[in-house]
Records
---
Amino acid sequence: MNILGISAYYHDSAACLVSGGELVAAAQEERFTRKKHDPGFPGYSARYCLRAGNLCPADVDYIVFYDKPFSKFERIFETYLAFAPNGFKSFATSVPVWVKDKLFQRMLITNALNEHLGRGIDWSSRLRFSEHHLSHAASAFFPSPFHEAAVLTMDGVGEWTTTSLAIGKGRELSIYKELRFPHSLGLLYSAFTYYTGFKVNSGEYKVMGLAPYGEPKYVHLIKEHLINIKEDGSFHLDMSFFDYCTGLTMTNDRFERLFGGPARRPESRLTQKEMDLAASIQAITEEVVLKLAKGIRAATGQRNLCLAGGVALNCVANGKLLREKLFDQIWIQPAAGDAGGALGAALAAYHLMLEKPRSSYSGDSMKGAYLGPEFSQREVEESLGKTGAVFTTESDEALINNVAHALADGKAVGWMQGRMEFGPRALGARSIIADPRSPTVQKQLNLKVKYRESFRPFAPSVLREDVSQWFQLDSESPYMLLVADVNSTKRLPMTEKQQQLFGIDRLNVVRSEIPAVTHVDYSARVQTVQNSTNPRFHRLISKFKELTGCPVLVNTSFNVRGEPIVCTPEDAFRCFMGTEIELLVVGNSLIRKEDQSRALVTDYSSCYGCD
């Protein structure tokens, strides 16, 4: 049974192939089109998935869309009626688009399938629709290592639901409690993303990264005016401060008066106010998540918890939830946002609609999230040859040795190996890597390689067997979705003068033996690397440890600001030549910047828009 899951028409569209219950392939459309958060129909992704499964379009038994468009249209329409006459201009402008894209989406999807996968197949008879939060829940539970678990999903909004609690057992999964629009933790966080001058649906992680520079001074104000949090984590928002129900912005004049002025203009200077606002909404989010989890544990008695939905990408809240030890184990879907909805829709169809059993609970079935395209060494060399790249092809041993020495010498390395990751994190397949011991790497990578804001932190990739020696974490974190503090034994004492610093002035203080991955509050977004999941990356870190005594590397996504993570060897070489990365490794091919023609150098800093 071959099932193709699809998410599209909002943001981060994706496709996923499930064959006989096994995850065969999954990819986001942005990686192929090179348009960040591409919302269009995932034609390239779908065709890739079929190639990965050695299938032709006629072999697909079902196409499953990740939500129910008519229910979403119903929510939009009823919301405008409830708030009328507010937003009438927006309503009148948007109705024609909604009718086309929501009300008649079955026809839209069928036409897209004809265009991208071929005509002559009755796609409409094979098309099914999942429910948005059920797709999220399925993406979290079915690939998890648990036979039984509670499943918490949190995001902006699906059809009506913004937060849901489900119980999974074997092949069964049912949602039995939910919070509904407009009361949404995801949209509350996005309101502050907008107000602090970042892009909604992409800048939320910037708010999370900015939070440690501030103090949660606005928590009381938020609780007094914006949100009423119950003891079980359920909550109610005062909608008189928000504009997302009927307007074209997230917040309104009343919100601005409450916080003392208009929203920060994008790309303008960050002030202590934005840092304090970020710290405050992060604290509120953590409180809600912890209370929801405590309520779930008490109400269900479940000992395992699965998480999905955009809020599940808040790795700081996840780390605090883990440390609370409310559950024996926690598993988080690495593609927790809408892209993962494609995966969940396919799995929901297989297990719930077709009533097929799950095969194993010995470990998670995400394959390390390495579900995207890969390239043979022959394909790598052909692709690099077409770009004009000058490269050498190394044996496995020589490659690992050369790259480890380059890292120890302070070089930034573009590292492209094996299958591309599914989800927003680079996990050692499409990564830029560097030496975490350097006090200047964090700033240099941000400004000279990533072309992004200097405050943004980098993550450490650490050997699983060594993680507890370096971080306050003694469990797996393969998907970079848990934040843990650097161990006290690895921290460096701060002077009294340094301790008095506030905000962005704290950025340049060297506070540990691995300053490039130590955030200003001593935290780090940890990825644990296992030989069984990514043997080549594990070998590289092990060699670096042999040379330096440090089993940790800086790991950031292989792209510049506003660009999707690289997918192909051509993408990797283009990014390499447009940035100050000094060494590129694609498969067994080694490309040194000094060997390349100056004619191939491009100004990559302005190739993509702001993220």
---
Amino acid sequence: MADRRRVNGPVGQTAPPVYDSPRSRREAKQLGDNAIRKIFLKTGVTPSASGSAYLEIEDPNATGPSSTSLKLTCTVHGPRALPRSAPFSPHIILSTHVKYAPFATRQRRGYLRDASERDLGVHLETALRGAIIADRWPKSGVDIIVTIIEGDQNRDSPDYDGDEGWDVMNVLSGCITVASAAIADAGIDCVDTVAGGVAALVAKDDKSPPFVVLDPDVAGYHKIFAACCAAYLPTRDEVTNIWFKGQLPGADAMIYNKMVERSLVACRNANRVLVSALNETVRSG
């Protein structure tokens, strides 16, 4: 007798849907080399947490109803007292946890953190540690949890598989910005609002020379040689973390310096969105 309470799947194999004529990289809408994608940031989205924030970044290649390529949410729990068994600490204990949702990328993610997610957590902790005034909360701990709802990838591109190595830079930049907003929403004292930014050395085709761009859309370029993600405190003019990935042609130090400078420009642009979102929260509250 058939089980009427269970919805059985198909008996045979199924094939994923195929969409006609996906847009290639050459047909994608290009932003200016000195422009960044639009950012939406909102705080106070999780009432049960001490602080929370939600971030979206525009996808210039979107053709469907969704116009975003990166979606992140962050919750902050604490500061709260450490267990009695924990050793004494004169500073706050910062714990960061970055995790992709299983459906965030085209290749389904597991429920346990992999090496790339642990690396993101380490870089995020380093970036935030330079901004938080840690000695204000001795014998305390705070948990910062970032969930990547949708990765920065163009799923309609025929060259999609080549994008997965570089989208992590934009993901880390968004994690830094959304975590900074959530920390401010939690009322944790910081020396400044830290924001993330990315610059990359790219080429549009095989014949054109490489050049440096801000906030690179991975699907919009033929090849990416290197990328630099920085965490920056604009008011204090301090860098709390730099992550460089790739190889420079000829090991030119001037290109490296230019990439760092351009990534700081992207940080300042993201910080303006961050400050605007915090001011909007103060006015509405």
---
Amino acid sequence: MSENKFQHIRDIEFKRLGDQVYFDHTGSCLYTDSHIKRYSEQLTKNVFGNPHSGNACSEKMSDIIHQTRLDVLRRFNVTVDDYDVIFTSGATDSLKIIGENFNWTPGSVYAYTEDNHTSVVGIRELAAERGASAYCVSCAKALLSGCTIVKAPQNLLKSKSSNENPLSLFAFPAQSNFSGAKYPLTWIKDVKRNLLPLDLIHPSRKCNWYVLCDAASFVSTSALDLKEYPADFVTISFYKMFGFPTGLGALLVRKNSEETLCNKKFFGGGSVSGWLASRDFHSPKPVLHDRFEDGSSSFLSILALKLGFDTFNQLGLTIDAIEKHTHDLWRNLYYSMKTLAHENGMPLVEIYLNQDDSTINCTSQGPILAFNIKRSDGSYVGYNHVVQLANSNNIYLRGGCFCNLGACVSLIGTEINVLLEAYGNGHVCGDAIDLIEGKPIGAVRMSLGPHSTVGDVNTYIEFLTDCFREESCVYTSQYSADPDKSTKIILDDILLYPVKSCQGMSVKKWEICDTGLKYDRMWMVVDEYGSPITLKKAPHLTSIRPTVDVTKQCLTLRADDMDSIAVPFIQNLKEAVVRDLNVNAKCVSKVCGDTVVGYDCGESVALWLSQILNVSCSLVQKCFDSQRYTSKRFNAYGNPNKISLVNEAQLLLVNRSSIEYLCRRMIEHGYLDESDTMLDNMAKRFRANLVVSGASSFSEDKWNRISFNATNIGGKNGRVDMVKCGLCQRCNVICIDPDTGQKLNGPLRALANVSLSDNAVRRKPTFGIYLKCDQSSCVLTAKSEVTIEDIT
């Protein structure tokens, strides 16, 4: 199948991609338009019933399920005489079935390779619970004979056990979902012939080995011939093959190995031939898949799977053609990235592979590339920053360890003690921590699929060159921790953002309440499902200009070419109904994982917003008495403080000198055109509440306690103290022009390349500091003096 044919399929079946570049096929393949159209047509033309019901539409569905099982087996070159197919919710569910039901006994061994998905490793807990010994092995250069133990077992294997021939299980991935390394399928027969070198564990006895092959990553772009490589158990997730349906996978069980899954206790509807409620009696169904598919199957998803096979066949997307296409693209990508370098010759990319380039071919390497970006001085760029910057360029990647911490640690070289300490300090998978002491604890992953093209690869190489290749040294700021005693630091501006993600409102003076600035982020726009609409989703939110009238207790929204609309404050539900705002009930939504209770502000403002954003949406006001607190990561700075709908902390401060410095760097490198309004435009991007002037650039990073002039409610002059509780880590929101809603990548790129005067490169794109305030019922005034009380 020619590259032109693949490009034609991309042009016809994926018009919705437009200029977006999708490199997360290992996360999920993309579904074709034809697949969805076929599925919709089948649903609208037919009546499909529950296969357990026994009527005509039920029998039709039963026939489709049977044919789909045959399609699955055909894909792997076997028949119903060789394997059974148990439909599950995905590969993880399939692995759980094995762990829960395998015939573990004292003396059994569960051996799994270090390079494995979380769900494969999780089986060890179930094995150990029944007395088996679980070992993690590392296979140097993908050689079975070179396996070494890298983890002591939960249970020590005894030389004698109650079972002279205990059943044991070896688990490995056909393809690493971290690096794309393909492991030899010949291991399947070798392990069953007792060639796994674990005699150092039990030299006096050989195990009765069975083999689990996790093929979820492998089968999306490679052929798996189970006739030639008869693994006992094979796990699959179909969305990785077709993109749709999600929530459907399969466990393929070799007929000769069925008896090993003998520990099933629970039974559900459809999985038993007979049972009694008044007696301890039930009789499992004799056919394996009937016995393990408790309850009604996801029969409409199985219909979608059948149509997935049919669609790929119609398009000519054979697995051999897909394998060649994706491997050719991978080689193009790999060698292009490998040659990228900074002006001083330092490599731009550090790639993580399990093998030397000389041995790379389509049988040893899948279309996955894991890497980190390095600066010209050899320091690392955090993978979160790379993913965010790619997002702002409509390029979709994944960062982290991809549920494969073993391969991640092994290939990157992360110290186990470093990770244990990080977990002890609150680090969790998927959080913002990507560098510890300057070293990466994860990577960026690109994964190609049938619908990737040469144009996608070229776009990404251009992105790396434009955004990360350095032609000179990183910028050095005029950093000074101590403020200049001869220059006063002034509170230059006070801003609040009544509606989350919309324009800010500059004020001369404003009240501090127990959540920060009063009415700051008290409202948010939500979609038809109640989820917040943010700048990342809808840049045109910047066209909405909210103002708050405290006297009239009213929020007013304005936008170009629209009449303004007034939204009265809602004190409680009863008041909302009296005001005839058409509020039916309280709304429940989530902001940064926190549950938020609010009030729908009515149909009028919903229609007004929907016209501007061109999506169905509404305005929600947070209940005044609904409590939400600062991020847990700020607990070290004292008791949690109440917050409104902000992401993390009560207040955000930025330094005008830091903004000016960043603007100069952007102008020098062509990211920004110099203009009179440029500084104000840049200041708006950072969405700060407090803007100060008079301090040296980036000195705010080391301020710990700050004192502002304030007026107590009642008229008495005084001061209000605020405590820094962290640096504000920046994402691609700062790339959105607050005046036009257009994206400009310069701010995020420039920020990542700033270094301090002590040559400590800013490892993360942070800008501004979070503040917390334990005082309330006082008023801040712009242009008043600021005192820095404590400096690190």
---
Amino acid sequence: MPARQSLADIEFLLTEVLQAPARWQALAPFADTDGDLAAQVLDEAAKFVDSAIAPLQRSGDEEGCRFDAGQVHTPAGFREAYQAFWQAGWPSLSCDPDDGGQGLPAVLECVLFEWLAGANHGWTMAPGLLHGAYECIQHHASDNLKAQYLPQIASGEWLATMCLTEAHAGSDLGLVRTRGVPQADGSVRVNGSKIFISGGEHDLTDNIVHLVLARLPDAPAGPKGLSLFLVPKVLEGGARNAVVCERIEEKMGLHGSPTCVMRFDDATGWLVGEPNKGLNAMFVMMNAARLHVGLQGIGLLEAAWQKASAYAAERRQMRAPGARDTSLIQDHPAIRRILATQRAWIDGGRVLAYHTALQLDAAQHSTDAAERAAAQRWCALVTPVLKAALTDQAFHGASACLQVFGGHGYVREWGIEQIVRDARVAMIYEGTNEIQAIDLLVRKVLADGGEGLAALLEALPATPAARARHTVLVDITHQLARAAQADPELPYWVADDYLRAVALVLLEWAWGRIETASRAERWSSPAQAFARWVLPEFDMRAGILRERIAQARNTKAESAAAV
């Protein structure tokens, strides 16, 4: 995906639609960051992505990673590209200057990683967890650990992993068996195995910092007994730690990223945060990762759209309606609908993701307590929506873009099939999309009876038609809260439908912002596609939710009558 091809669109969304320069200049750490500086950063980022990362996309997929006696060799060019990446300062864009970072707004880092994912998803898996690891260590590690590891994580000189999953546990972290035994010197000895560890072993950096969920000896059962430990590949002084990569997985996609089975054999580590509160520390990392996975969805869909759009502009096939001769396939209504619909998701998704990044900075740096609270509410409610809705659309939308190529899309030559393969995993990792939906509805929306969501929607400018949809969603939410008291399973049955409904009203707000800023043809075509082909799904989801609520009520009434 040529990053520079989307640069003008992104600058328009940031400056004209979201008024980002004014918003971040209102926050003390970014008072000197104006639109010109941001444009310069993004221009250089686009050049780097296009010249250093994108050319390795196909070769990295075809060569893949090689496993040899515990060592992992990444595809040709990957190490050199990564060394250039961190030495140019790209991982440290939004890190604190006190840690060696550049102190820039989070949204600039978000744009960079969106581009990286679209250009070369496999390579981008390596630095993808850096920011989350940085936040986790910065907020929860001891001063000694920060001094020893934070500068190298902030700069990207060392990469990091998130070691959660075990073969028997999957998403149920309460079943984790890995153990950490305290030592007299304040360290711990970590024993256990982890699977699906992206970048658990590689040759990109000289050290890898593993953040490992495990249990202390007397920890309570379940997730409340988990602690977090920092376990480096290489110890201070240069000795290799007892961390072993047993194998790498053969996968559907992401061949350029090693997905490792890791074993810890009395490995030396240190506690991060408080004992038995590892999930609190780890969720800082996971929440950062979930926003970035949503951005991966945008980047991958943009890459697929660019390929399909370029192909449609040069391929002739049959006569389009009203034409006298063979036509470019971009003139056929079916193809125009595919391309405009995916464009609607990309543009609207960008507004939501970038607005969320701006809210992250507001939540951390605003001096207004009410603004901080509103920003925190937005991030808590919208992050699972972005992760689930945008990765779902990345896969299904990329598949639709493959359809534009016909049979040519199914063969490797055109590169679209790789995007479809690579995109599929984003619906699974960092919490499956089903878990995101449950997190949204059960843990966040229903936890306060829907009041937080209602307040979020009330604060959004809306047309009368959009406000009517907000009213419908809030009413359904209150009905779900009441019905769930009698049928606790109900929210779990309908969580996916609920998340889609929320995503659609948020996208409607995003498109309202775009249309307010510009009525140019570039934006009007996808705006029409959103109204015609995307937004009507809201009525379908609302109908499903109402029907399921009615069924739950009827079941309750029948049970009461039987008694």
